[in-house]
Amino acid sequence: MTSLLLQRLVLPVIKSRNVVPNLFHMNEAIPCTNTSISSVRNYAKNKDRGKDKKGKGQKVEINPTMIAELVDVNKLKSKCQEAIEKMRDDFAKNLSIRSTTGSIESLPVKYEGKDYELQELAQIIRKNPKTLVIDFTSFPQVIPDVLKAIHSSGLNLNPQQDGTRLYVPVPKVTKEHREALAKNAKAMYIKCRDTLKDIQNEFIKKSKKQTGVSEDLIFNVTKQITALSDQYQADSKTIYETKHNELIGK
């Protein structure tokens, strides 16, 4: 018996080679034919094989009403928009192809912990098309802070001090000048992008701290906050790329 079981396990196909004699029933011959016994294995199919994981690559539909169940969605949008508008303002003030009087006037200067525009601290005169004069006669103590602001502005200016006045040569529009402005534009864009990511993380943390709500709701809101942030990041990138092409002359 044991030998027979081993044969069935080892041999997938067992063929009978013996000739079976004809049997007789009621004086009639009943022919018998050789038979073959085959073992067949059926393999279960993996329904998920070759398919993407559920939900992978699917676009997240943003539902402000759902987000509002856990966080202030209007505040989220407002903070993201403010970050983008700040980048726009920085581009307009600091990344002009020509360093015009207007861009100098609105140059932000930090003095004693407060922010001022340069025109609030000094008188700005265009002496000729190639030179600006900034007069600090009535407020000379602010000159070091103004020099610091000019050097970090990305305007590619090299002011020369003479007493209470700064003489600022307006640089020619060279390839190097354009590349320097484009580099500053990228730095401003990266700062904006990082700010948007910080806002995203801030609101995700707030949503996860909510109590008395389902884990599914927290999970879905987290995905939607990320998707909303991604939209603002995409907008900021488009604005940057447009400015970059403008600066390098594309």
UniProtKB/TrEMBL annotation:
| Any GO CC annotation of this UniProt entry | mitochondrion
Q: Where is the Ribosome recycling factor domain?
A: 88-247
Domain of life, per lineage? Eukaryota
The Gene Ontology biological process annotation of the record reads:
translation
InterPro entries for this protein: Ribosome_recyc_fac, Ribosome_recyc_fac_dom, RRF_sf
The record's GO molecular-function terms, alphabetically, read: ribosomal large subunit binding
Q: Where are the transmembrane segments?
A: none
- Record keywords, A-Z: Protein biosynthesis
Into which family does the record put it? Belongs to the RRF family.
Descriptive protein name: Ribosome-recycling factor, mitochondrial
Q: Give the species.
A: Leptosia nina
Question: Taxonomically, what lineage is the organism?
Answer: Eukaryota, Metazoa, Ecdysozoa, Arthropoda, Hexapoda
